[in-house]
């Protein structure tokens, strides 16, 4: 870690990802929309001073504010621009040489009560080289002139942002005869003079002119595409304008995916309390461990002086107390959360933008699929969607989703549509699994509900506190939590219909189907009534959980995207269990699910359906239209996969232990990736080892998987303590949890008030 300001890196270093995506060293660059640019520059005055190259930069900059602007105007004259809706003024002042005229204009802003521009971008040199035929006398005069201008720029830099743009290299082979004297050697000499003279007299760190040297690096890669060998291609100057916008606006707009030039966010009150709690937990655990260690030493075997024989200690090593286990869990969790904070909140580790290529997505996919096949084992049972099989399913889906996120494959629509099916498949399993449990066990007790809710939400609640993020930010957990409660309410509400009751009287099956029809009707109504949905989830305290950026639209969008798939999972479970009860399907080891003829027909239909969906998803042209169809058609590929995976007896009897291992920690993997594998809340990639992308991914992945596994164990251990089976004890714990959330709400309200 070199330290320093990320703004310096943004202005001076970086590389291209592919042909057009610029990656600054150590930080992420946000792509500003015109609305964001206007909000940042409202009531601001920006001035560009220089030659035709600066004029190019001026046009690219104002197009970020108003994309409709055309490059029409006097080429060798001043060009004004104003956006009256946001009171933004951007002026280009034609001063192609660093001379007395430029000095006089800059000096006018330093005198008296003249309004100073908020941003000043200056640069010139090629005209001096051209007019004076590249003479050494012209370079000497340039040094004298820039020496006289430097103190004025430094004075302006106290209250304004001042940037000196170094001269870009030229493509000498393409230069016209009148420009042949403009060589890269001369440009380097002028740049060297500017860098040496600027800020040489400044003792105040605030009164520094920012040297915009990154343009040189960009030009070195792209100047060959220039029309005349002198002026940059449009894509390059647009990149320069975007860098300028990031340098000035990131600290104002604070975009999540723009880590350059953003200061470390201050610790909130809740974060400070969490830090104190984890610190005390670590200290408490160390004290108890030392006490137990000393007691163990005292009780060790000792020699009897009279008989000379060794005595056995009367007291054995004590069992781990509930308090010690609790402190042990919070001790480990505290260390893990420290790592989370350092990775994604402290400006300690570097972050980079994602860049998608087909190879970065498909090669890892092929690798893990081949690896998964090598870990094939026999299942303990051969039922449809048995535990090993569902863990395997969750595991390979989670690995594919992780690769999808780190490779930035969401920009490739066919991949996006297939990943949407994987997310839907998770929710399908939610409907299938919880329905099967309640239908077979008939257990609607509070203990079961609390266990599920704790295991689903524990990590997310901790991250909301430590990382200062709203609950809805981790959208998948609210989604599965709400659907679990919907499934529970559907089956638990009177009349309760379970398998044992339905076996006694077949009419109860119709009662259950009636409940499912009512559920489907409610889902349909809410999906087409955004107003009703938002009203329900805008009531306190639901609004505290489901609001993101001040509204519940994001929650409505996420819910609507997979609105039917949980219902499909419940319906599939009901049909499957009914077929199983009436022995219509055969689940013996090695046996096909149905008769050979029926199995072959179903297998053929499933394969065709699976491929048909993939062809449709691959031919998608518009993400919005495809998202509209997705809730209704995603179940086709899910059911096709289940049948392909379960109809052949041999395929149903084996599973991949490699994928199943990841499946057991799939929820933790999905949540942890936000901060310790990806970066900037999933918008970028965490860089622990700069300069070695492959090695960096290997190291960060290893740590990430270990942490997810450890958190899974911590969650399971704490679930046994926090959610006991005894009802009276459980009630006390629930009161404590209610008190905890009340305190959290109180401190959150205080925090919000102090922010406003």
TrEMBL record:
Pfam families: Cas1_AcylT, NXPE4_C. Signal peptide: none annotated. One of its GO terms (biological process) is carbohydrate metabolic process. GO terms for molecular function: N-acetylneuraminate 9-O-acetyltransferase activity. Keywords: Acyltransferase, Glycoprotein, Golgi apparatus, Membrane, Transferase, Transmembrane, Transmembrane helix. Residues 22-72 form the NXPE C-terminal domain. It is a multi-pass membrane protein. Residues 254-734 form the Cas1p 10 TM acyl transferase domain. Belongs to the PC-esterase family. CASD1 subfamily. This is N-acetylneuraminate (7)9-O-acetyltransferase. It comes from Erithacus rubecula.
């Amino acid at each position: 870690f070199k330290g320093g300001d990320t703004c310096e890196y943004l202005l001076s270093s970086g590389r291209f990802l592919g042909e057009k995506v610029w990656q600054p060293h150590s930080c992420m660059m946000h792509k500003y929309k015109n609305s964001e640019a206007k909000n940042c520059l409202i009531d601001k005055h920006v001035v560009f001073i220089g030659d035709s190259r600066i004029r190019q930069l001026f046009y690219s900059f104002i197009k970020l504010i108003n994309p409709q602007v055309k490059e029409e105007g006097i080429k060798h004259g001043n060009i004004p621009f104003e956006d009256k809706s946001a009171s933004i003024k951007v002026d280009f002042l034609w001063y192609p040489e660093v001379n007395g005229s430029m000095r006089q204009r800059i000096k006018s802003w330093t005198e008296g009560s003249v309004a100073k521009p908020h941003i000043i971008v200056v640069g010139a040199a090629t005209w001096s080289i051209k007019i004076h035929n590249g003479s050494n006398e012209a370079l000497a005069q340039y040094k004298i002139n820039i020496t006289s201008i430097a103190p004025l720029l430094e004075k302006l830099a106290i209250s304004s942002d001042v940037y000196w743009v170094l001269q870009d290299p030229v493509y000498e082979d393409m230069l016209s005869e009148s420009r042949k004297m403009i060589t890269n050697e001369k440009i380097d000499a002028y740049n060297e003079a500017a860098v040496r003279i600027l800020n040489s007299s400044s003792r105040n760190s605030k009164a520094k002119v920012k040297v915009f040297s990154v343009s040189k690096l960009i030009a070195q890669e792209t100047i060959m595409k220039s029309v005349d060998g002198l002026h940059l291609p449009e894509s390059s100057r647009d990149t320069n304008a975007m860098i300028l916008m990031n340098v000035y606006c990131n600290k104002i707009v604070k975009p999540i995916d723009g880590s350059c030039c953003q200061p470390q966010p201050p610790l909130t009150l809740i974060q400070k309390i969490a830090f104190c709690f984890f610190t005390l937990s670590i200290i408490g655990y160390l004290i108890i461990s030392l006490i137990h260690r000393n007691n163990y030493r005292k009780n060790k075997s000792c020699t009897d002086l009279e008989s000379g024989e060794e005595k056995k200690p009367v007291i054995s090593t004590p069992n781990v107390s509930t308090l010690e286990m609790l402190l042990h869990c919070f001790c480990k969790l505290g260390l893990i959360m420290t790592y989370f904070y350092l990775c994604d909140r402290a400006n300690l580790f570097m972050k980079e933008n994602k860049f998608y290529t087909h190879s970065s997505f498909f090669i890892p996919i092929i690798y893990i699929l081949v690896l998964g096949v090598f870990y094939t084992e026999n299942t303990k049972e051969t039922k449809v969607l048995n535990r090993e099989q569902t863990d395997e399913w969750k595991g390979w889906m989670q690995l594919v989703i992780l690769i999808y996120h780190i490779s930035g494959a969401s920009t490739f629509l066919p991949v996006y549509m297939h990943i949407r099916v994987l997310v839907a498949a998770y929710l399908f399993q939610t409907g299938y699994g919880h329905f099967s449990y309640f239908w077979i066990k008939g257990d609607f007790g509070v203990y079961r509900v609390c266990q599920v809710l704790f295991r689903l939400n524990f990590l997310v609640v901790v991250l909301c506190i430590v990382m200062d993020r709203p609950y809805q930010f981790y959208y998948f957990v609210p989604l599965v939590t709400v659907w679990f409660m919907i499934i529970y309410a559907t089956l638990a509400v009177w009349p309760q219909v379970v398998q044992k009751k339905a076996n006694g009287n077949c009419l109860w099956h119709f009662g259950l189907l009636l409940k499912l029809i009512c559920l489907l009707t409610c889902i349909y109504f809410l999906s087409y009534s955004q107003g009703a949905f938002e009203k329900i989830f805008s009531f306190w305290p639901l609004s505290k959980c489901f609001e993101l950026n001040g509204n519940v639209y994001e929650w409505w969008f996420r819910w609507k995207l997979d609105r039917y798939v949980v219902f499909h999972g419940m319906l599939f479970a009901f049909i499957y269990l009914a077929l199983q009860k009436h022995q219509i399907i055969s689940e013996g080891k090695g046996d096909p699910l149905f008769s050979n003829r029926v199995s072959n027909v179903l297998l053929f239909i499933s394969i065709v359906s699976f491929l048909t969906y993939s062809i449709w998803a691959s031919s998608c042209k518009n993400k919005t239209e495809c998202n509209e169809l997705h809730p209704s058609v995603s179940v086709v590929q899910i059911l096709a996969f289940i049948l392909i995976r379960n109809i052949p007896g041999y395929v149903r009897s084996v599973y991949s232990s490699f994928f199943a291992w990841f499946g057991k920690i799939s929820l933790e993997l999905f949540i942890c990736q936000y901060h310790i594998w990806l970066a900037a809340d999933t918008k970028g990639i965490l860089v622990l080892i700069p300069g070695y992308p492959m090695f960096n991914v290997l190291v960060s992945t290893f740590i990430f998987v270990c942490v997810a596994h450890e958190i899974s164990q911590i969650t399971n251990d704490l679930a046994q303590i926090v959610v006991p089976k005894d009802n009276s004890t459980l009630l006390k714990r629930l009161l404590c949890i209610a008190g905890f959330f009340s305190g959290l709400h109180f401190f959150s309200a205080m925090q919000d008030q102090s922010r406003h």
